[in-house]
Specification:
The protein is mostly beta strands and about 120 residues long. It has no helices and seven strands. Strand 6 and strand 7 form a beta hairpin. The protein starts with 13 loop residues before the first strand and ends in a 12-residue tail after the last strand.
Length: about 120
C-alpha cells in the first residue's frame, strides 16, 4: 500500500512523477521542485481477479416489504409456506438468474434458494 511521502526540503506532500530520461519514477514536490527517488513504485493497482460469489445481501427484514413478490414455497427452517423473493444483484459477465427467498415469518427470516436450483458450490446465503 502506498503511503504519503513528504518533501525533505519544505515538508509539502510529494507527488509521483515519471523521469523519462532516467526511466524511473520519482517523488516530485510541486512547491519547491525537489525530487526524491520513489520508495514504492506502485502508483495504482487494480486487481481484476477477485472471487465473486452470489450473496443475498439482506440488510433488513424483507418479509414486510410490500414491493417484493410472494411465493408459496416451504421454508426449510420453520416450514412456513410463504416467502418473498428477489433476484441476485451481481454484475458479472456470466450472470445466471438466481432467486433468493426470504421466509416471511419474523421469528425465522431464513434466506434460502429454490430447492430445485442446482448450486455450483460458490453460493453464499
Amino acid at each position: 500500500m502506498a503511503t504519503l511521502q513528504f518533501c525533505s526540503e519544505c515538508n509539502n506532500i510529494l507527488a509521483p512523477k515519471a523521469d523519462p530520461l532516467r526511466r524511473i519514477m520519482v517523488q516530485h514536490c510541486q512547491s519547491c521542485g525537489n525530487e526524491e527517488p520513489a520508495k514504492n513504485i506502485t502508483v495504482f493497482r487494480h486487481d481484476l481477479l477477485t472471487d465473486t460469489r452470489e450473496q443475498a445481501g439482506v440488510t433488513t427484514f424483507l418479509g414486510d416489504d410490500p414491493t417484493l413478490p410472494h411465493a408459496e414455497i416451504t421454508c426449510p427452517e420453520c416450514g412456513r409456506d410463504d416467502a418473498v423473493f428477489f433476484q441476485d444483484q451481481s454484475k458479472r459477465k456470466e450472470t445466471r438468474m438466481i432467486l433468493f427467498y426470504v421466509c416471511t415469518d419474523r421469528t425465522c427470516g431464513k434466506v434460502f434458494f429454490d430447492p430445485g436450483f442446482k448450486t455450483s458450490g460458490n453460493l453464499e446465503v
